[in-house]
Amino acid sequence: MVPVVVAAIAIIALGVHAAPAAPNATRAAAQVDYYDVTRGAHPHDVAPAPDGNVWYTAQAQGALGILDPRTGRVTQVPLGPDAAPHGVIAGPDRAAWITDGGLNAIARVDPATRAVKLFPLPKDFPDANLNTATFDRKGILWFTGQNGVYGRVDPATGKVQAWRAPKGVGPYGITTTPNGEVWYASLAGDHIARIDTVSGDALMIQPPKAGVGPRRIWSDSKGLLWVSFWNSGEVGRYDPLNKSWKVWHLPNSSNAYAVFVDDRDKVWLSDWTNNTIVRFDPVTETFDSFPSNRRRADVRQMLGRPGEMWAAESGTDRLAVVRD
Known about the structure:
Distance between the termini: 21 Å
Number of helices: 1
Helix content: under 10%
Strand content: over 45%
Radius of gyration: 19 Å
Strand order of the largest sheet: 3-30-29-28
CATH superfamily: YVTN repeat-like/Quinoprotein amine dehydrogenase
Mean pLDDT: 92
């Protein structure tokens, strides 16, 4: 069933919940819908698919989940024994590309046949704890592993390469800028880094202050890098040209997890402390809040397409979408 939203009323229909409209003018234009997924899936990451569906990683069930938001129908594609998928993105080939820590491999799922193809990491990287991936402008997939690893996959040849991160454990979020640069954030390593896409070397950039814990990273349309600071509850913006930082604190927050920049350069974050999704407008420097209507939503990652921002509520077995 497609969820329904009625302003200022929270309704429940067949397990699909709609959030009440927000009280201020900015939020009133936005609509929040929730879609239940398979119970026990604990969806970690989410990605709008090119065909209109929405993919999510069913981390606890070793599968790629597929939601049809028009009907609410959910199916899952098993990735194999011991699978524990973390990240999912849509590739230039319109397929789902997954970082799977349980399999220690990158997985590709064909959206038409549902066939799964694995790209295992080199044997000298046996437990990378794979996290997130991004494609560069040449169609090469780059990935991170929290156990101190980053690397790449060439889909054309199947070749997989990996490198040790300069400060060991911590590589987490990763992004590609409009000019083709690839950057990752290191949570435990407390830095961000630019990967030389030719040599594979990583150039570290220190945060504006020590201990903030950069967790996720996303580029806007101008190549500015937005970073969620997990330990300090802040969002940072790094300008690679000027080599400068600017930082804003999320309202009453101590933990900022996900970050995503939409097609209008609005910055979305998940506020772990307040069980809330927030939208930041860099022009007015103001925040809007979209609290979940269930406790412990635990939104770990967000992605979007024009007019839609999708989030995975790992704690409630739901996907959330903000439409405006």
